[in-house]
Amino acid sequence: MKQLYVLLALQIIWGGVNAQQLTPCDTANLDSSLDLTGVIFTNVVTTSPISYAKNPLPSLFRDVKYVGDAYGKPPGCTAPENDECLNDASALVFTVTYPKDHDYATCPLKAIVLMHAGGFGKCSSYDQYLIKALATLLAGRGFVVYNVEYRRGIDIDTVDNNKYTSVQQYKAPYIAEQDIKGFFRSMIKRERNKSQFNDEWRIDTNNIYMGGTSAGAYTALNVAIYDNAMINALYAPPIASGNIQYALGSPDVDFYYGKPDLDFYTFYQPKIKGICSMWGAIPMPYNPYNQLNQQPVFFANAHLVPAILFHGYKDIKFPLLDIPKGNQNVYLSGMQNSLSKYNSTTFCIRND
């Protein structure tokens, strides 16, 4: 079934109906007549973890472990005795899976950036079988595949049987998006400064694909489609500043090897040529028609790219049929003088 997802995605996005003898550069060109249902490269290798963190790591960088996170899944991931606030780059790593026997100097390959599932819980990891299997399958068909780790950490609000969304559940996807945008810049900078490294692979930095499973797909869709104004509209708790940057910094925060010296929406997003979402989602603000100043529709400035999206028929999180009616109550930090009952946190929040 996992192979079917990948092969179907390749068939729909890039075609692939006529079997033929491929040359080393055919997959680099991605001609629409290519048959990518079979393995092209049999010698596929994966690197050890590589950091994409800025060195030295800025003191404002925060990564958190909550006692109330989903520990014990998978087995072996144990909860801390107390909430922990970390300033280390252990979450900012990636691996690369690529065909070893290829003439990269003549034909750089297309890149695919993958992010793993896990509901943004700390126990989830990029060392998941499915993501690693997808990376191997895709690399065998002529792609350089990046498996990217990102910051996670949620603290479920148990009030009224998890009726509300905790502030940590809003914070986690926001910082994940910061990380993936930072990785995207870092990936391109690393490619364009290849003489500093001993990387065997080369990529076409103007034609990049993104995808992921569940939380990873959610992150990929936000990074690939929305600009910063849209992201701020999505994460807009009623705090004094009016948006989440007040607490966590810009979506283009400078924590990574690739500096935010160019506008992501203008320079980087056009390089994303397609998205594959496997049981992911894309959020919308409560009123998408009025959230952005002078924007009649929320998607007016979105970077819309070809996408293929998979939804499991038996998905219990977002049921395909008989979706329950009613609204989810958002339970977020409020202004100090707010009369509403809000959950708030100051733990492990950057403080300029």
Describe the protein in words.
By secondary structure, this protein is of the alpha/beta class. The strands form three sheets. Strands 1, 2, 5, 6, 7, 9, 10 and 11 form an eight-stranded mixed sheet that branches. Helix 4 (167-192) crosses helix 5. The model is unreliable at 1-19 and 326-339 (pLDDT under 50). It has one domain (2-330): Rossmann fold (3-Layer(aba) Sandwich). It has helices at 2-14, 26-29, 129-139, 167-192, 215-225, 228-234, 245-248, 264-268, and strands at 44-46, 50-51, 63-65, 84-86, 93-99, 109-115, 143-148, 164-165, 203-213, 272-278, 307-310, 329-330.
Features:
alpha/beta, two-stranded antiparallel ribbon, Rossmann fold, 8-stranded mixed β-sheet, 352 residues, disordered N terminus, single chain
Write the layout of secondary structure elements.
Elements: H1 2-14, H2 26-29, E1 44-46, E2 50-51, E3 63-65, E4 84-86, E5 93-99, E6 109-115, H3 129-139, E7 143-148, E8 164-165, H4 167-192, E9 203-213, H5 215-225, H6 228-234, H7 245-248, H8 264-268, E10 272-278, E11 307-310, E12 329-330
Parallel strand pairs: 6-7, 6-9, 8-12, 9-10, 10-11
Antiparallel strand pairs: 1-5, 2-5, 3-4, 5-7
